[in-house]
Amino acid sequence: MPIKRHLTQIKDSACSPQYVSQEHAHPEDAMLRLASLLHSLISTSLAGTFIIVALVAGQVTLYPIIAAAIAGFVIAAPVSWLVARQLYN
Predict the structure, then answer these.
(1) How does DSSP assign 42-64, residue by residue?
(2) Above pLDDT 70, what percent of the chain?
(3) Is residue 13 included in any domain, yes or no?
């Protein structure tokens, strides 16, 4: 059995309809999935960077550290959308 035919059978037998047909998928859905994946990576990087900046600035109590982490998470949303748009186009 050729490998391509075997992979097609595996792809066709998958339970989820997204594995069977990608022709009807909307480009916005794919970009949203890409942006979500990028947000998980970018938000951790920005939150960590902002936490380090807060610690270097001498803010060693709980609330400035949490505020820095939340700021990194929130700022990562538009950044990840812009990166996803650049990668998708």
Answers:
(1) HHHHHHHHHHHHHHHTT--SHHH
(2) 72
(3) no
